[in-house]
Specification:
With 153 residues, the protein is an alpha+beta fold. The chain has helices spanning 2-23, 26-34, 42-54, 58-61, 72-87, 146-149; strands at 92-99, 106-114, 121-132, 135-144. Strand 1 and strand 2 (106-114) form a beta hairpin.
Length: 153
């Protein structure tokens, strides 16, 4: 009786692995397991970008960026966020809200940060992503003001 439990356990694990490999190609599964920051979705790379800023892993933040195509305003915005999280260690990501966007590669998000010192930062960004050989990367970031969002379709 005891051996049959182990057999069932092994069969369940094997069926899960077969399902994962059948659902995604083996190359995608292995690369996502080896480098989870390069998952196969633009939304995931944006989520991980903000999570790395929140955990102060600033060296990893640069891995999510495609620096060649980024505009100077986008680079400036990222440097501002890096300096903001370095200066205030109590600032933490409260909410990352994905808003509707016209295409899967163009992502509109609202980011809310808070700290115990009652400092709240809320901003809305349009982020462009692109697929590269090493996974999805952020190619552009642009801040929106509340007035400019009124005119969005």
């Amino acid at each position: 009786m005891r051996h049959s439990r182990y057999l069932w356990f092994v069969m369940i694990i094997m069926s899960c692995l077969v399902t994962i490999i059948a659902w995604k190609s083996p190359q995608n599964v292995v690369s996502a397991m080896a480098q989870p920051q390069f998952a196969d979705s633009p939304r995931v790379v944006v989520q991980r970008f903000w999570d790395c800023l929140d955990t102060r892993q600033l060296d990893l933040v640069d891995q999510f960026l495609s620096g060649k195509e980024m505009s100077p305003t986008g680079k400036h915005e990222i440097e501002n966020w890096k300096s903001l999280v370095e200066k205030n260690p109590l600032l933490s990501l409260q909410k990352l809200e994905f808003l509707s966007s016209s295409s899967p590669q163009s992502i509109l998000i609202r980011v809310s940060w808070t700290s115990p010192l009652k400092e709240n930062v809320t901003a809305t960004y349009a982020m462009e992503t692109q697929s590269t050989s090493s996974g999805w990367k952020i190619s552009q970031i642009q801040k929106f003001s509340p007035q400019s969002m009124v005119n969005l379709p």
